[in-house]
Amino acid sequence: MDRFSFLNAAHTEFFAQLYDQYLENPDSVEPSWRSFFQGFDFGMETYNEENPVQYSREVASASVSPAAVDNSKISEQLQKEFKVVKLIEGYRTRGHLFTKTNPVRERRTFSPSLDLENFGLSSADLATVFDAAKLLGLQPSSLSQIIDHLTAVYCQHIGIEYMYIRRPEIVEWIQEKLNINENRPTFSAEEKKGILNKLNQAVSFENFLHTKYVGQKRFSLEGGETIIPALDALIERAAEKGVEQFVMGMAHRGRLNVLANIFGKSTQDIFSEFDGKDYDQEYFDGDVKYHLGLTADKITKSGKKININLAPNPSHLETVGAVIEGITRAKQDKYFANDFSKVLPIAVHGDAAIAGQGILYEIIQMAQLDGYKTGGTIHIVINNQVGFTTNYLDARSSTYCTDVAKVTLSPVLHVNADDAESVVHAMQFALDFRMQFGRDVFIDLLGYRKYGHNEGDEPRFTQPVLYKLIAKHRNPRDIYAEKLLSEGVIDANLVKTLEKEYKDDLDHNLEASRKKDLTVITPFMQNEWKGFEQVSDDVMLQKVETKVEKTTLDSIIKTVSMLPSDKKFINKITKIVTDRKAGYDNNTIDWGTAETLAYGTLLTEGFDIRISGQDVERGTFSHRHAVVKVEDSEEEVVLLDHIENKKGNFRIFNSFLSEYGVLGFDYGYALANPNSLTIWEAQFGDFSNGAQIMIDQYISCGEDKWNNQNGLVMLLPHGYEGQGAEHSSARMERYLQLCARHNMYVADCTTPANFFHLLRRQMKTKFRKPLVVFSPKSLLRDPRCVSTVEELANGEFQETIDDTTVNKVDVKTLVFCTGKFYYDIVAERENNGRNDVAVVRIEQLFPLPVEQLKAIIAQYPNADDYVWAQEEPKNMGAYTYMLANFDLVKWRLASLKAYSAPAAGSYTRAKRRHADAIRMVFDKNLFR
């Protein structure tokens, strides 16, 4: 609840009680009220010296009958003081609705206005001096002076929303900050020239491209150029405050300008991209120029070195917001031991996107969560007042595009993009707020776009009136230059000189660029990826050493199977944890134990581990229990934190109910820390459907588009156990359709040992690829699904597993399958006594181990019946993928027929269909 909400009701009894409290103990009253009471002369000419407390109570409580006190004038003055207080709160709460923040058209009309009459005051009161001015940090002032101050602070080129914030210390900090210089920018002559210089670069860059590359898409910044001097000032000021790294994500609009004039990207390379030249790397298809990112080291004016990163992103613009949060957190965890002040995330949005894209809500909800917080993000909206061709009134129901900020009670500054100094001032305010409180802050940079959605578009088709205004509107540089000229800060020739020098430099780079044959792409975050190689499918299929000393396993199992004896745990937890050691001693290691041992061994080798997702701490199916809770206190115990010789950090977090945002975050985390095994686990495999954009646009193709390797692991529970359409299939077919040319691994393991080595392989290679694992559900506790200690210690990941239980000469039918279905087929074979059937498991689907499969087939000389068996319907699962990629034999299919839904809702029907698919393995006549 904000401090002055009671003023809406003008509850004078409350004021009287508050004044009593002040008289008895001034320090117990909120500072701004203390200041108010200190300055207010309650007695005036007839002050009651004998009983001041009783007198003031009579005055303050005289809300119905002023005649109840001796001096009606005092009562009237007190009532007006409180009306002025209400006026002040009106400006603080609603002043942003009456600002001069729109550079190209009149603002909408809001009611009620801030007119005096709406607060019970009139023009007759303008000369009256009120002590309520002390709430603004002023001396007692006339009402006219108070209004001038409030108008300057709240209703000029910067409007601010903050009164919904529920923490009084934040509200007070903001109010004190606003009262300094009346929320007006104050810069030295040199600082103003610096702003003009960056503004000239922004304007001249766009003019140059518009002239040299007529009609080409560039998503011009024109109409929002003031963000360039603002970002420049932000970096300078942040460096002074100790920030060492920036991580920035942004939309298309203005990206090329930001790359050139903030990140220092070579304009020669930008011109090569405009000229459409091929790339200087063979295994890299690239992306359009306004999707690319960059990492650079910048030296500030004060000589400080700061690392700045602009993340690449696809046309799904707001996805990058989640990615940069993950990158930021990884850098904070890796370099600064959770000192959030050292790495600053900046998200630049479009107005239509921030209002319309649901991922924004997910990202905002991360802001204060332990597993995802980054110490506050500065959100900047380049507000064009239109989305593609949709007017802002059709683009949202909320008043502002930034109203999502209220979810986390973050302040919002609305700024006129034509006023360069106000934009820089707002940016500095936002930085100070973020550094002070570690919370998000939003800047709504209200401008326009000079052309249509892109430079080939005709905006007058849909906004003819607006674009008549824009056509006559001067650019922000010329507006600012005229201001500085009138102030005597610059002479008339400075702008022409700056423009010519910058254009000459661009002309020189354009000429040099046209002498080059290829486009050079600078890798993103190259420092983090030193020592890693980019590889092809052949290298991905090479064996990787993943063995572990048995003594290491012995030590780890001892730690992860022993709960603290001085704490009480529920019996089920105790049994699950202690059973790990019993199974290990009996040489029957289940899935959960093998997974835990994989993490433990990697931690002893210096790798970090991060796992997130819904319910991952215990595991959706209660198999992991990486975090256990003390029964009485809910104190958390993480046994992996206590293993001997641990060199890496283990981090595991239950996520909030998000897939899209969280997967994007973890992708970013893996992108910034290749030496962390970063895992996202879906509660059920097909829950990843909600994150499909991250999978399609980043995970499956980020290396091909942007040269970014990434080792993210996705664990997707998969298997048909009669749990209906949404809890059966992880949609294997979708991932396999995305597989091409060394882009990722796809696996479906059937043994704990193979999963153990798969996880270890992910970190032991000299390259990183995303890994999609179709992980089991029922197999987590299936007594048939166990491995030996020897298989963990001295084994390796097996891309295929041949059938060792049959005489190969006797085999007539050779069945290939993947995952849990293997156990179902083998059980049926045993029931039928079919020794002429062998079952081969394909544990890695991509890259497909063709040579291994060829060698296996050669070992069955009498086989003449080849079967692909799957529990998924014919149009799902791996069938079509195998049909397209494996032609060594002629398959017949054993599966369900094609369906639109992955599984039946009826358990009885699902069980019957499952049994039909199994029977087809053994009966050729049932072939569909």
From TrEMBL:
<dbReference type="GO" id="GO:0004591">
    <property type="term" value="F:oxoglutarate dehydrogenase (succinyl-transferring) activity"/>
</dbReference>
<dbReference type="Pfam" id="PF02779">
    <property type="entry name" value="Transket_pyr"/>
</dbReference>
<comment type="function">
    <text>E1 component of the 2-oxoglutarate dehydrogenase (OGDH) complex which catalyzes the decarboxylation of 2-oxoglutarate, the first step in the conversion of 2-oxoglutarate to succinyl-CoA and CO(2).</text>
</comment>
<dbReference type="InterPro" id="IPR031717">
    <property type="entry name" value="ODO-1/KGD_C"/>
</dbReference>
<feature type="domain" description="Transketolase-like pyrimidine-binding">
    <location>
        <begin position="589"/>
        <end position="782"/>
    </location>
</feature>
<dbReference type="InterPro" id="IPR032106">
    <property type="entry name" value="2-oxogl_dehyd_N"/>
</dbReference>
<comment type="similarity">
    <text>Belongs to the alpha-ketoglutarate dehydrogenase family.</text>
</comment>
<dbReference type="InterPro" id="IPR001017">
    <property type="entry name" value="DH_E1"/>
</dbReference>
<dbReference type="Pfam" id="PF16078">
    <property type="entry name" value="2-oxogl_dehyd_N"/>
</dbReference>
<keyword id="KW-0560">Oxidoreductase</keyword>
<dbReference type="InterPro" id="IPR011603">
    <property type="entry name" value="2oxoglutarate_DH_E1"/>
</dbReference>
<dbReference type="Pfam" id="PF00676">
    <property type="entry name" value="E1_dh"/>
</dbReference>
<dbReference type="InterPro" id="IPR042179">
    <property type="entry name" value="KGD_C_sf"/>
</dbReference>
<dbReference type="Pfam" id="PF16870">
    <property type="entry name" value="OxoGdeHyase_C"/>
</dbReference>
<keyword id="KW-0786">Thiamine pyrophosphate</keyword>
<dbReference type="InterPro" id="IPR005475">
    <property type="entry name" value="Transketolase-like_Pyr-bd"/>
</dbReference>
<protein>
    <recommendedName>
        <fullName>oxoglutarate dehydrogenase (succinyl-transferring)</fullName>
        <ecNumber>1.2.4.2</ecNumber>
    </recommendedName>
</protein>
<dbReference type="InterPro" id="IPR029061">
    <property type="entry name" value="THDP-binding"/>
</dbReference>
